Amino acid sequence: MSRREGSPFTGVASIALKEAADHLTSARMHLSMLLVLLTALGSVYAAIGQLKETVSEDPFLFLRLLTTAQEPLPSFVAFLAFLLPLVAIALGFDAINGEYNRRTMSRILSQPIYRDALLAGKYLGALLIIGICLVTLFLLVTGMGILLLGLPPSGEEILRAFAFLLIALVYAGVWLAAAILFSAVFRAPTTSALAALTLWLVLTVFWSIVTPIAARAFVPDDPLDPETTVRQLEAAKAIGRLSPNTLFGEMTLAILNPATRTLGLLFLRDLDLAVVGSPLPFGQSLVLVWPHFASMIAALLVVFTIAYVVFQRQEIRA
Amino acid sequence: MSPVIQATGLTKRYGRAVAVGGVDFEIEKGEIFGLLGPNGSGKTTTILLLLGLTEPTAGSVRVLGFDPLRQPLEVKRRVGYLPDTVGFYDTLTARENLAYTARLAGLRAAEAGPRIEESLRYVRLTDVADRRVGTFSHGMRQRLGLAEVLAKRAEIAILDEPTSGLDPQSTQELLELIVKLSGEGMTIVLSSHMLEMVETICHRVALFNRGRIGLAGTVCDLASQVLVGTHVVEVEAEGIDLAAALQSTPGVTKVARLGNGSWRVDADRDLRPEIARAVVTANGALRNMTIRQASLNEVYARFFTEANHVAA
């Protein structure tokens, strides 16, 4: 059987730019960005208030802006972990089924492009918008920090902040892929939105409740064997990391809090010769999060591939 | 002249349901070819197969010498498609919608601009080019769809139910545009179940029934194939029984009584003189006699009654 001819990427850029332009002017995007902006600025403002009161010396004061929580507000990072999926879902939940419902699908696909281009273009367009929003948000926060604290970020802090932005982009990318998958599976946009939101609630809110229960089921307590407690904790960690939310939380912890030495269990024997509380160099923090980052990219690719297969197998006629 | 579209043994099955069950046809350059048949008879599936938007289960298609399955981009670059009840991005203007598809077709903005302008003028939408498509009527959307096919400079236009749901005036406008385009050398394939329309503009038609082409040819050919008598004479007369009077007249295939004093006579040639003589000989008073050519409507009705009888 001969191969099909022509590049599958013909038209990707046109579709991505058009999608991005659509998102920028859509009311849905404005609303979700307003929500993110208000919560983020609120949390950073509260964090600044807290930071002004502490007088202890901290070489990474600037990163504290992002991670300090002031009751009752969670930190900037915690807000992003919670809200980024929501923004991604808002951008992706009607990507494919919306084209069917507007009856534009067959007209667009009768242009000289492959279906691959439509899916990839829609994905990249939305991801571009998320990227722009993340950078804008970060610059706003930095500006606020400089204005209100009167202190510029150091070189390493900027490096760590960029690493954090990249991680946040991939995290949003996983959710965007999931939202587009649901938009390909379900014909009604409301159904796909609900399905995506359900998954979001399960993985961000209920997952931490489920993991210890599941771990106990896999590794039962044995009062005679103290090792089981450790194994149970390790199982709980592993199950917890099935949620991109957990992966994101642990990665931001390691990147934005340089004193973090491990993301697993720490035993006293591991601390031999360690200077407790001293920060790790940036490279070592990267080494620490690398497995997490790789798993998250893997999750993104797997979900996007499933969406791709589902979409390719669909009949065009409505 | 070599055909621009050639389908051989084209088959598409969805599971066990057969959408298209092995059709063969050829379409010549510059021709208006009508795909005709009831809903669900495989017209739209055939169109999707021509465009490579769905894969055939068996058989093959050649469009302008390309295989839509293996060289879909080449085919789609040269073929314009107007889906039935075409949709546009409602928040964009007519011009922006066309500019978007022009970009997808790989045209540069400098090249696309004049083409879009020209095609909007052709379908008389220049005045509303900068209005959002959301405010457009159904007829305007169909015309905009045609403008898209034009802006692409397509060699073949495939129109799926172009006039369904249009008011008579918009239908007329659209048909005039189609005939004009055909006159300029564009090959046009259109599917429809509106017979008068197909009859007036199509050079050749193919009658679809349950995924197969029952008949294909010019409207005249079809009539002589399907209708036993190609001539229908309506007779109004008083004081006689026409059926009895014409019993021994050669060439009469059927005499049907339509009402009090009126009959319909099917004949294989123009039998008006013979009928008049028969009426007069039987002492009847001839009031009126009209002959008409069989219309596609009758061909269609007769064909599908027979097809259903065979199937039943």
Description:
The complex is a heterodimer of chains A (318) and B (312). Chain A is mainly α and 318 residues long. Chain A contains twelve helices and no strands. In chain A, helix 2 packs antiparallel against helix 4 (76-92) and helix 4 (76-92) packs antiparallel against helix 7. The longest helix of chain A has 35 residues, at 115-149. The radius of gyration of chain A is 22 Å and the shape is globular. Chain B is of the alpha/beta class. The two termini of chain B are 41 Å apart. Chains A and B meet through helix 1 and helix 6 of A and helix 1, helix 2, strand 5 and helix 3 of B.
Which terms summarize this structure?
heterodimer, A: 318 residues, mainly alpha, 12 helices, B: 312 residues, Rossmann fold, Alpha-Beta Plaits, 29% strand
Summarize the structure.
The complex is a heterodimer of chains A (318) and B (312). Chain A is mainly α.
Order of helices and strands of chain A: HHHHHHHHHHHH
The poorly predicted ranges of chain A are none
Shape field of chain B: elongated
Number of domains of chain B: 2
Named CATH topology of the largest domain in chain B: Rossmann fold
Largest sheet of chain B: 6 strands, mixed
Give the H and E element order of chain B: EEEHEHEHHHEHEHEEHEHEEHEH
- State mean pLDDT of chain A (0 to 100 scale): 89
CATH class of the largest domain in chain B: Alpha Beta
List the helices and strands and how they pair.
The complex is a heterodimer of chains A (318) and B (312).
Chain A lengths: L11 H14 L1 H27 L7 H7 L8 H17 L4 H5 L3 H5 L5 H35 L5 H31 L3 H30 L8 H14 L3 H13 L25 H31 L6
Chain B lengths: L4 E10 L2 E11 L4 E5 L6 H9 L6 E6 L8 H7 E4 L11 H11 L4 H14 L15 H14 L4 E5 L7 H16 L3 E6 L2 H7 L2 E6 L2 E6 L1 H8 L4 E8 L3 H4 L6 E8 L2 E6 L4 H10 L3 E9 L2 H16 L1
Parallel strand pairs in B: 3-7, 3-8, 5-6, 6-7
Antiparallel strand pairs in B: 1-2, 1-4, 8-9, 10-12, 10-13, 11-12
